[in-house]
């Protein structure tokens, strides 16, 4: 990026990358699209720029600026350097009556002479006239015919059109003709500064030799900004070396042709071209073809600025309308006509001009040109093809949109600009639209379609093939979080990509595949034996090359299409329901959706649909299972349990509605209902003079995932003013598999409110010593169910003895739940277990029965 934007013309941070500069630029590669601080901008490549300044004029954001020598000029003038000023003829057209005051002021600052470049313009016209006269009869392919007055045109041809170098008329520009005359014929050796409208004149200044040396290029815009606070009415000066009339007009578009054509018969062709765009240069290049020898004009003038030099990029934005400026031009032109005599006699015109400059030597005003052309690397067709592919232009229509929003004339030009490094595909609005759609429908990690695209593609596939039957398969990676935790997220991402590639090969080009999220994939294929074998043939995913030593397995649910009217989303849902029915850590499992699953799904939907109404009807009630001191057999607490009793007396089993509520999210609502009922009942018992025992309430895994539960519990405590030691909160050991740091933090905050925390069902799952070590709990509840499930009672008793002993050393209160026999109770008492809960003493009972038990305690 450092090699850009460091030349005569540069881009500021106001640029927003609108591409207008590119669309108006005549120099390929002069504008380079970059991204700086996250913002797209068009920087200037100074090695490619011809300094025409068109981009400065067309930029509506004020983001293109340029350099000149204005500050240096005034600094060195004030230091005493002897400097004379060359003033472009457009200065007098633009500033009119103000011009003498401005010139008078700069002379008061120490400017030695003020020369009007109109004099040099007439010398340039004289020299060009004589060149054309002496070469007009030469073969068209040998003579020069292009005006070299405009430095931007010369620079452009030197950079990009070496075949036209010999077609440039070898005569100096008006500026250099003026400086040559001053140096050679007036013997003025003072430093020279050129004041004009042109940014590209800086190139002439830097390339000038000793015989025509100009040291400073000043533009009207910067010059007048420097003098913005000056009252010019107190000063006055006239320019020296003023032209007779012709030279005063050259700054206006078409004036040079009007002047030169007056020295030739009418049949001679003089052409004016507007702008240095590729079309103009192609037209002019045609004249070098021998097939067009009879049509080559005698003279061609290329106007870089649309309305001539007075509209150049270095001109102030005038408050005066163009009509006023044009009126000044007409006034000067009429004065010229009045003094010129019969301008229709071209021979007489030649004689007058030659007579005027008879003491000048034409060779003093001749010039040469520099070949600056650098052959561009030829971009292979394969590269353009690759660029088009990356831009998602995969059809001929997309490759020929040619909207020019990127700034180039065609999509092909844009592709070449990208290949040369001048631009970025993100500047193509059609690519960005396609990319947005692509991103909307593509999983960014695996590169395969996402859920939206899968539904769309499968719907299209089924519609296009009504005679075929399809299967949709939904799969999820088993224990994918473990892979991420052990091998790292980066490796986990590689596993996802590997699985995506494997499944893609299995379904082939006639199937569909998608990555939904996490470890969840979906595929669709024709329900035939070939594809079923492909899918079932994937026993597991061998990811050892990726650094995962254990076999990676997935559980797949498959739904086979029954008719073409089924929605794709419904089929995905059916496949997903089947998916969780079977899993293995050693191999992939495949479960096909059955009517039994459908009935279960309908049942779950019915339960879900009734839950909200049940909440409104207060159908969820509390039951209590007493907890007894193992030594005294006195009630010392109770676990509150949720029961769903409908108004008609029907009881919905907790084994039925609890798992469903965990899946549909209602569990969080139930938690709050149970907590509130527990606090409310405890408050009422205290008010009634009942001596209550602590009751414990459950916190589901869903509620533990949010900090909201802290706020809710604190609010309930304050609302009912219940002593914190009368309410305990239970969590299950499975909750520890989530975000452990967050879980510990939330439990600590509950304990800070004064509540005890119990670990429920310890031993029912894959218990970890980390739970005992890390979790800030007060009560450990042992699940005696594993004793009933084990055939080896002796080993089970040893495990319980060890856990109880360990818990005692950690100062935990030990509660054994699920105790059903006296033998179990005796063993637990002897082991040191504090509290016993189970059907041996009492099943869960309603509030009245529980209060009766407390009274009789």
TrEMBL record:
<dbReference type="InterPro" id="IPR004108">
    <property type="entry name" value="Fe_hydrogenase_lsu_C"/>
</dbReference>
<dbReference type="InterPro" id="IPR029787">
    <property type="entry name" value="Nucleotide_cyclase"/>
</dbReference>
<feature type="domain" description="EAL">
    <location>
        <begin position="604"/>
        <end position="857"/>
    </location>
</feature>
<dbReference type="InterPro" id="IPR000160">
    <property type="entry name" value="GGDEF_dom"/>
</dbReference>
<feature type="domain" description="4Fe-4S">
    <location>
        <begin position="383"/>
        <end position="445"/>
    </location>
</feature>
<dbReference type="Pfam" id="PF00563">
    <property type="entry name" value="EAL"/>
</dbReference>
<dbReference type="Pfam" id="PF00990">
    <property type="entry name" value="GGDEF"/>
</dbReference>
<keyword id="KW-0408">Iron</keyword>
<dbReference type="InterPro" id="IPR035919">
    <property type="entry name" value="EAL_sf"/>
</dbReference>
<dbReference type="GO" id="GO:0046872">
    <property type="term" value="F:metal ion binding"/>
</dbReference>
<feature type="domain" description="GGDEF">
    <location>
        <begin position="468"/>
        <end position="595"/>
    </location>
</feature>
<feature type="domain" description="4Fe-4S ferredoxin-type">
    <location>
        <begin position="6"/>
        <end position="37"/>
    </location>
</feature>
<keyword id="KW-0411">Iron-sulfur</keyword>
<dbReference type="Pfam" id="PF12838">
    <property type="entry name" value="Fer4_7"/>
</dbReference>
<keyword id="KW-0004">4Fe-4S</keyword>
<dbReference type="Pfam" id="PF02906">
    <property type="entry name" value="Fe_hyd_lg_C"/>
</dbReference>
<dbReference type="InterPro" id="IPR007202">
    <property type="entry name" value="4Fe-4S_dom"/>
</dbReference>
<keyword id="KW-0479">Metal-binding</keyword>
<dbReference type="InterPro" id="IPR050706">
    <property type="entry name" value="Cyclic-di-GMP_PDE-like"/>
</dbReference>
<dbReference type="GO" id="GO:0071111">
    <property type="term" value="F:cyclic-guanylate-specific phosphodiesterase activity"/>
</dbReference>
<dbReference type="GO" id="GO:0051539">
    <property type="term" value="F:4 iron, 4 sulfur cluster binding"/>
</dbReference>
<dbReference type="InterPro" id="IPR001633">
    <property type="entry name" value="EAL_dom"/>
</dbReference>
<dbReference type="InterPro" id="IPR017896">
    <property type="entry name" value="4Fe4S_Fe-S-bd"/>
</dbReference>
<dbReference type="InterPro" id="IPR043128">
    <property type="entry name" value="Rev_trsase/Diguanyl_cyclase"/>
</dbReference>
<protein>
    <submittedName>
        <fullName>Diguanylate cyclase (GGDEF) domain-containing protein</fullName>
    </submittedName>
</protein>
<feature type="domain" description="4Fe-4S ferredoxin-type">
    <location>
        <begin position="40"/>
        <end position="69"/>
    </location>
</feature>
<dbReference type="InterPro" id="IPR009016">
    <property type="entry name" value="Fe_hydrogenase"/>
</dbReference>
């Amino acid at each position: 990026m450092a090699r850009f934007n460091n030349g005569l013309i540069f881009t500021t941070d106001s640029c927003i990358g609108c591409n207008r500069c590119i669309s108006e630029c005549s120099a390929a590669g002069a504008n380079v699209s970059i991204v700086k601080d996250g913002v797209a901008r068009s920087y200037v490549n100074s090695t490619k720029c011809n300094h025409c300044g068109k981009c400065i004029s067309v930029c509506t954001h004020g983001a293109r600026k340029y350099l000149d020598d204005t500050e240096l000029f005034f600094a060195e003038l004030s230091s005493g350097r002897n400097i004379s000023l060359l003033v472009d003829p457009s200065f007098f057209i633009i500033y009119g009556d103000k011009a003498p005051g401005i010139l008078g002021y700069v002379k008061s600052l120490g400017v030695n002479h003020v020369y009007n470049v109109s004099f040099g313009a007439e010398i340039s016209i004289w020299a060009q006239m004589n060149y054309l006269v002496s070469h007009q009869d030469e073969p068209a392919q040998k003579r020069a015919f292009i005006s070299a007055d405009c430095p931007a045109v010369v620079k452009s041809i030197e950079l990009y059109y070496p075949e036209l170098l010999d077609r440039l008329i070898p005569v100096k520009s008006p500026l250099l003709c003026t400086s040559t005359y001053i140096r050679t014929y007036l013997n003025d050796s003072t430093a020279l500064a050129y004041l004009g409208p042109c940014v590209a004149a800086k190139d002439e200044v830097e390339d000038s030799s000793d015989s025509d040396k100009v040291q400073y290029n000043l533009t009207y815009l910067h010059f007048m900004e420097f003098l913005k606070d000056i009252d010019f009415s107190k000063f006055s000066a006239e320019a020296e070396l003023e032209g007779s009339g012709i030279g005063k007009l050259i700054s206006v578009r078409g004036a040079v042709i009007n002047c030169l054509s007056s020295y030739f018969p009418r049949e001679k062709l003089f052409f004016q071209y507007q702008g240095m765009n590729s079309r103009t240069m192609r037209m002019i290049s045609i004249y070098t073809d021998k097939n067009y020898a009879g049509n080559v004009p005698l003279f061609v003038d290329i106007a870089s600025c649309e309305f001539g030099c007075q509209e150049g990029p270095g001109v102030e934005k005038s408050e005066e309308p163009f009509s006023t400026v044009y009126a000044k031009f007409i006034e000067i032109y009429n004065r010229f006509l009045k003094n010129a005599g019969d301008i229709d006699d071209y021979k007489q015109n030649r004689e007058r001009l030659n007579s005027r400059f008879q003491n000048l030597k034409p060779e003093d005003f001749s010039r040469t040109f520099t070949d600056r052309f650098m052959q561009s690397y030829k971009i292979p067709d394969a590269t353009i093809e690759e660029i088009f592919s990356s831009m998602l232009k995969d059809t001929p229509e997309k490759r020929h949109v040619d909207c020019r929003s990127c700034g180039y004339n065609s999509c092909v030009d844009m592709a070449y600009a990208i290949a040369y490094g001048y631009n970025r595909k993100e500047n193509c609005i059609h690519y960005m639209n396609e990319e947005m759609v692509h991103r909307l429908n593509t999983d960014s990690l695996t590169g395969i379609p996402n859920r939206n695209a899968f539904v769309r593609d499968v719907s299209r596939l089924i519609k296009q093939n009504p005679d075929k039957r399809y299967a949709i398969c939904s799969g999820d990676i088993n224990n994918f979080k473990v892979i991420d935790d052990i091998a790292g997220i980066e490796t986990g991402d590689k596993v996802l990509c590997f699985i995506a590639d494997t499944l893609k090969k299995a379904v082939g080009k006639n199937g569909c595949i998608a990555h939904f999220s996490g470890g969840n994939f979906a595929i669709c294929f024709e329900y035939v034996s070939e594809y079923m074998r492909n899918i079932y043939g994937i026993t597991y995913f061998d990811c050892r090359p990726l650094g995962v030593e254990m076999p990676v397995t997935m559980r797949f649910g498959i739904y086979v299409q029954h008719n073409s009217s089924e929605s794709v989303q419904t089929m995905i849902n059916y496949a997903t329901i089947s998916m969780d029915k079977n899993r293995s850590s050693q191999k992939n499992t495949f479960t096909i959706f059955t009517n039994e699953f459908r009935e279960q799904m309908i049942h779950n939907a019915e339960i879900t649909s009734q839950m909200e109404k049940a909440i409104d009807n207060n159908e969820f009630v509390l039951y209590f299972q007493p907890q007894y001191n193992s030594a005294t057999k006195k009630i010392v607490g109770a676990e509150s349990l949720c029961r769903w009793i409908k108004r008609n007396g029907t009881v919905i089993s907790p084994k039925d509605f609890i798992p469903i509520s965990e899946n549909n999210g209602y569990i969080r609502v139930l938690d709050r209902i149970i907590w509130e009922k527990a606090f409310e009942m405890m408050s009422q018992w205290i008010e009634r003079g009942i001596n209550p025992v602590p009751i414990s309430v459950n916190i589901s895994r869903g509620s533990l995932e949010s900090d909201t539960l802290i706020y809710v519990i604190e609010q309930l405590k304050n609302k009912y003013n219940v002593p914190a030691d009368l309410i305990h909160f239970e969590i299950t050991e499975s909750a520890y598999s989530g975000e452990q740091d967050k879980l510990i933090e939330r439990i600590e905050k509950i304990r800070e409110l004064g509540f005890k925390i119990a670990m429920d069902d310890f031993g029912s799952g894959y218990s970890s010593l980390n739970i005992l070590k890390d979790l800030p709990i007060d009560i450990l509840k042992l699940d005696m169910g594993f004793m009933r499930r084990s055939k080896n009672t002796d080993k089970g008793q040893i495990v319980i003895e060890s856990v109880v002993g360990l818990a005692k050393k950690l100062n935990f209160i030990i509660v054994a739940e699920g105790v059903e026999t006296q033998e179990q109770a005796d063993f637990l008492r002897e082991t040191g277990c504090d509290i016993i809960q189970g059907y041996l003493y009492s099943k869960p009972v309603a509030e009245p029965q529980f209060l009766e038990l407390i009274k009789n305690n």
